[in-house]
Amino acid sequence: MGTGGASSVFQANAQVSGACVSSSNSIIQNYCDASGALYLTDLAQLESDAVNGYLAEHNLPASDASVI
């Protein structure tokens, strides 16, 4: 969003909820960085990919995901 004027710089802002998400049922416990930016989608996907990769690498069934 610009501030107006010919020399203004365009800045994009994302809308995210103000509360950081915590989950006791996941490896990653806090989905926000130090500034409070929420990375829920990216970190949840990273965790899911890591768990599934570990299970596949060790020939374990997908049902063991909750154990990791």
Distance between the termini: 43 Å
Task: Compute the average pLDDT.
Answer: 76
Described by strand count, sense and barrel closure, the largest sheet is: none
- How many β-strand runs? 0
β-strand percent reads under 5%
User: What class would the helix/strand composition place it in?
Assistant: mainly alpha
- H and E string: H
Shape label: elongated
| Helix fraction bin | 25-40%
What does the radius of gyration come to? 19 Å
In the predicted model, the low-confidence regions spanning at least 5 consecutive residues are none
Helical stretch count?
1
Describe the structure.
The protein has one helix at 40-57. The chain contains one helix and no strands. The radius of gyration is 19 Å and the shape is elongated. The chain has 68 residues and is mostly helical. The longest helix is centred in the C-terminal third of the chain and has 18 residues, at 40-57.
